[in-house]
Fold this protein.
Amino acid sequence: MSLIIVEIGGFNNKIEILKKVCNNGLMKKLVFVLLAFLSVSCFAYTKKELKAFPYKNTSFYGGSFSSDLLEKIRPFEGNAADYLMNFDNIYTYKNHNLSNTEKSLFAIYFNGLPQALKDVVTNHVYAIYFVDGMEYGAMTDIIFGEDDREYCIIYFNADIFYHTMDEWLTYRDNTLFNNTDDKNKVVVEGGQDYVAFLQTLTHEAAHVYDFINNVTPYTYDSTQATDRGNVFFSVWQDKFTPLKKYRNKKFEKASYYGFGGQVSISQGKNLIEYLAKSPFCTAYASKNWMDDFAEALTYHHLQKKYGIDYKITWYKNGQPKATYSYKDNPNAHVYDVLCKEILGDDL
């Protein structure tokens, strides 16, 4: 999951007015949430304008940059904690101190990443936070140093150390739906032998690579955002809207993890049939082109190195009724050339 910058723009004067009218603590909190949401979700900013937001600067998070993986881990407290809890509007998050076993697992999975992803995390991730109580797996954002150098911060849900990949992705994909129960649900298979952290770490490292290398055209570089030669415009109309032939109106307004609308689990077959005809490797990839890229790179790597597939089955009244498989979908490899360029043969 990544924080998102989109191109609507022209709202700065209203933001300044909001800042001026906030005289009490509650209003300041409400406007903090609004500013955070607008800055990453609704409006285009230049790099200079982005840096005007405190949480877009390394100084907001304190400390100094280290290329050592474990030294990047910071306590979830202070500004970083306030920011994420305000952004999510959930105030029960707690810092998670990694055990020695968890540190070892983190290092093992990090060392298993392709070199391109290891390098970008090593050289550009400023801070990593492990959090108890998060509803989702992780979130990555771009920030800036005083020298204008680009960095990222990553928040990880510590719970993903304690679920298999299949368990976590089954939970994730069921959050799209309401009216689920033990007999009416979707089930994801393909990574039962691996901890969920493997998939989540790879996905977030792909976001870091994207932020730093401008793979998808969503950054503050407005010229890049209009480059129709970018491969993502072969699938997407804009960052949130696939081309008409790849849209699914029943699901495009549905959100994961309870942060928006849901659709009835009775529509599970609709999702399966949609994915089978789409260029998206997973259901999660269909929500925006940043997650489309992150999922594509993740499953390109996981399938080739570990033989991991993404297979989702819809169950009705306890019976499997429809199944989609990334491995068996010839349409879901539109970014294979791009993934090969990034990862090479180092899987």
